[in-house]
Amino acid sequence: MNTVKHHWFGNIKGDVLAGLVVALALIPEAIAFSIIAGVDPMVGLYSSFLIPVVIAFVGGRPGMISAATGAMALLMVDLVAEYGLQYLLAATILTGILQIVFGYLKLARFMKFIPRSVMVGFVNSLAILIFMSQIPYIFEQDWVVLALAAATLVIIYLFPYISRAIPSTLVAIVIITTFTMFSGTNVYTVGDMGTLTQTLPVFLFPEIPLNLETLSIIFPTALALTVVGILESLLTASIVDDMTDTDSNKNRESKGQGVANITAGFFGGMAGCAMIGQSVINVKSGGKGRLSSLVAGIVLILLIILTGNIVVQIPMAALAAVMVMVSISTFDWSSIRNLRVVPRTDSIVMIVTVVVVVYTHDLSIGVFAGILLSAIFFVSKISKVDVDSHFNKQDQVRTYVITGQLFFASVTEMIDKFDYQEGLSSIKLDFTHAHIWDDSAVAAMEKIVNKFNDNGTEVEITGMNEASTLLVNKMKDKLSSH
Amino acid sequence: MFNKILLASDGSEFAVRATEEAIEIAKCNPKTVIHVVYVSEDSKSDVLQNWNTLGVQEQRKQLVRPSVEKIENADIKYEIEFLHGEPGPSIVKHANENNFDLVVVGSRGRNRFQELVLGSVSHKVAKRANCAVMIIK
After folding, report:
1. Model-level pTM?
2. Number of structural domains, chain A?
3. Which CATH architecture is the domain B4-136 placed in?
4. What angle do CA B101, B107, B112 make, to 5 degrees?
């Protein structure tokens, strides 16, 4: 009970202030991510209101901010383009259900199978995709748009030198919007991208036929959303853990993300997850507890209801510039410096992950490609088996010392490393520095022994460790029973 | 005299030199405790770079290891503290809030580029800390 109280009211002033800052920073992102997904700005705004409010109660990591995100929006593009908003809402609900299952099965512990280089690739490709999605709004327009975007970026990066109390993205958007409103500059605005209804969301069941065909349409998207949402949320949770020197419950967070997404889906919001950038802003602004997430969501929807008619005047150029800033701060720049420091295979995995994501526009495919490639690299690295031999003249016995991991990928090469034709009456195989892992390795050993026996050479096996001996005996029984 | 010394350490050779001077001062007073303070600037990058390794915190402990070893060998009391944020302001805030008597910093750190853009950490600390500040060249 005390921890609950502490999580909510242990830091009221810091949490309320940080929540305000986050709400202001969330608005442009929620609108931009809706546009990326191809839905009305309201869909992202509802989700950025509902998700942080729900997460405040059910999340596992106080101080972390979840809302509509770029990573999730990018996965929805095809579904929305082909089938429309209702299917997206259904996919959002299914994502939530899958995430709750994920949480109950305690699958967070399997995050350790995702290598570091894949995580870096994930973050970097996310940054590149967000940047690419903004190119049409900046570079494929006239010079006025380019100038507005440039001016926005200048304000975003220089304003912190004047004051850090107000988020510089908000200052930039206010200045640029005011300028275009009063100078009568004719540029695309948020209002041109869809309608902004100044009302609270209402409960609606998605208008879709409830059958297997619908499920087969939404399931692939929902699965990708589940994986990416959990991945980014748990990565963000680890970052907040580190920033606050506290630990968090990752399985509770997975379930919380699920509950939040189900709620979003039923109230007309799109699937979201934790946001690295916003969580960092929150913690740096003094937010540590559950209250900041709640404040962020509520303030966001109040601002939209009260000032929606001004929000639609925001030029797309300014919004796109904010997204450029988001992509720059999402990218892990130290990974470029580290390219030459880390093992070459790690760098290849990172780059392949990025290339696959940028090519497929699907973060989940990139992550799987990265994991698969790392696994292959690992297998090929560990499958190096050395066979050294020395000859004892007195006993006329040659001893082969085998060093390495013996398993399916390493045995074929090993078999050729023995001299079966030497014509000795006996040899020794020393397995002191080897480990036998699977039936392929046992079969290979038998093959080697048989080959020596065929040439009239006796074989003595020594130094096998306990685990290997156990496996060999088990396999022998099994093989002979056939 | 100086009972509580804040030694800013980022694992660079300047930090090691600052450690040696801090030890010399600490030797004058048996009550002195040196707080070795490391400021991590970018949690995101640190967590990413240490995903699946011993952990971020272990990595940071390794970074302050050279300083800590020197202090241990000199048989002086010490504590290790990890802060998050921008190095300059974080050190100033920590020093002012916890009544340190002296801050010892190296004149340069590991990141020359940042120094060029943002100004040096030692300069910021010297300007804003409420206690004595010693900058080691």
Report:
1. 0.85
2. 2
3. 3-Layer(aba) Sandwich (3.40)
4. 135
A229 near A72, Cβ under 8 Å?
A: yes
Please check the confidence at residue A482 and state whether its pLDDT lies above 60. Answer: no
Interface residues from chain B to A (CB-CB < 8 Å): 40, 42-53, 56-57, 82, 84-85
**A359 assigned to some structural domain:** no
pLDDT for A269-284, tens place per residue?
999 999 999 999 999 8
Q: Where are the domains of chain B?
A: 4-136
Residue A466's pLDDT band (boundaries 50, 70, 90)?
confident
* pLDDT for residue A478: 63
Give domain status of residue A239, yes or no. Answer: yes
Test B48 with A245 for CB contact under 8 angstroms: no
Residue A360 lies in a domain: no
Q: Closest Cα of chain B to A29: distance in Å? A: 20
* Residues A116, B49: C-beta atoms closer than 8 Å: yes
Residue A257 lies in a domain: yes
Q: Which of B44, B90, B93, B124 to mutate to test the interface with A (most CBs of A within 10 A)?
A: B44
Enumerate long-range contacts of A474-479, CB under 8 Å, 24 or more apart.
Answer: A475/A439, A475/A442, A475/A443, A476/A442, A479/A442, A479/A443, A479/A446
On whether both A320 and A405 belong to a single domain, the answer is: no
Please list every residue in chain A whose beta carbon sits closer than 8 Å to the beta carbon of residue B45: 332-334
Q: Tell me the residue range of the domain where A405 lies.
A: 386-481
In this structure, the number of other CB atoms found within 10 A of the CB of residue A239 comes to 25
Tell me: the pLDDT tens digits for A213-250? 999 999 999 999 999 999 999 999 999 998 888 888 88
Same domain, A317 and A425: no
3-state class (DSSP) for residue B110: coil
Nearest CB among B48, B84, B85 relative to A332 is that of: B48
B3-32 pLDDT, tens digit per residue, is: 899 998 887 888 888 899 899 888 888 889
Q: What is the pLDDT of residues A318-334, one digit of tens each?
A: 999 999 999 998 999 98
Determine, for residues A334 and B45 on separate chains, whether the beta-carbon distance falls below 8 Å. Answer: yes
ipTM entry? 0.80
Strand ranges for A276-321 from DSSP E? none
In this structure, the answer to whether residues A310 and A422 fall within a common structural domain is no
Cα–Cα distance measured from residue A232 to residue A122, given in angstroms and rounded to the nearest whole number: 9
**Cβ–Cβ < 8 Å for A68, A34:** yes
